[in-house]
Batch of 2 targets.
Target 1
Amino acid sequence: MSTNRKLAVPGAGGPTYMVYGDILRQLFRSFAHRDDASFRAAAESIIRDERAKNHRLLADDLERLLTRRPTQLNGAGLAAKRRDDLPTDKERGFPLIDVAEFDLDWSRLVASSDTLEPLHRLVEENARADLLSAAGLRPSARALFYGPPGCGKTLAARVVAGVLARPLVTVRFDAVVSSYLGETAANLRRVFDFVSTGQWVVLFDEFDAIGKDRDNALEHGELKRVVNSLLQLMDAYRGDSLLIAATNHEALLDTAVWRRFDVVVDFPRPDFQSRVLLLRMFLRGFPHRRVNLESVAKSAAGATGADLERIATDAAKRAVLEGRSTVTTEDLAPALAAFRARPDAQRPADPAPDASDGSISRKRSVRRSR
């Protein structure tokens, strides 16, 4: 980024033009001296510059961070305040949800454009809900993430919550599902009542636990009543929270459940280029210049993001235990062998065009989101 660009900084006598380097110096100097007015002026000029370059998501993220109320940043205080307010299972007293905050951004996600683009749209709609409301429109409020385990669905929900600067509410199905007749549906109502009271990102992980196909002859009547209740609750929901359901077993979902979601996002196993980017990200804390990541990625065909993280972590631990700070190919070889020996390892061939030569289709272009 050039430091010679000029930005306009508002002043009493009109805008004062400063080069970008001076803006950064003002930003850091005002922060060090706790000069809130100067800090805000410098920050706002950067936001205007990013918006002028059509970097809308970045500008919106910076603006939300700048205007966020102090209480929103105090995760420990919020957690303490909410503990008494959390919905609980009536019979056992277990909390039905967990609440957490995540300081994550788009840089944590590596995925194809087919996955990232609907996520970006989902966040932008919810971040600019006031603009949509002025036009008589509502943002997408229900999203379904599906794909194999370890491919980033839960991480994506945390990133969405982080970018929107909202707490993440995770529904605890171990507490929601009850053996008492009618209590599971009642627990779901308590969850929906709670999330309707504020702006949250709500994650229904392992959603197939309650959204199973009602036509399956092996399912009992109580579960079918739960699915009916779930559909009614989703239809009636009009709150400001963003609901995200995630499943590893989309084939088990009731067909009527799919129609309740405004956005459906596929999280497939990473292809060749994604595997290279993921390995580079997981090894970023350890020098690895002599490692051919392309070769490692090709050998790890079929690996999920979680598999690749385990491979990189195992290699890093081996290097550290041997007194080295640099990861080598010899460190990665046993980690790769251990992955290939796992019974759950799947190694489908990469789709055409041959990703091993670096070529990828435009539709499935892979990038690390910024």
Target 2
Amino acid sequence: MQVKKAGFLTKIVILALLIAASVSLLRMQGMIANAQEELDTLKLQVASQTQTNADLRDAVEHSGDPARQRDIARNELGLAAPGEKVIIFTD
């Protein structure tokens, strides 16, 4: 049984298909790298938002705590309890 050699046109078609497949794979690899970067960025955003949510949940759950209210009054509002003296340090 004889094996027929591939013709010139067949070789050109196969070469074109291989080039097209290679270009497609390279393009797909770039898309995957971009998607991975976006995924990493979104994971960081989710972690940050999760921490923010936990802080807010804690603030809501302990909003009636007198010690917390005093801390907020002193640290965030600049208030002082009766008889306290406020000392402000400047640079």
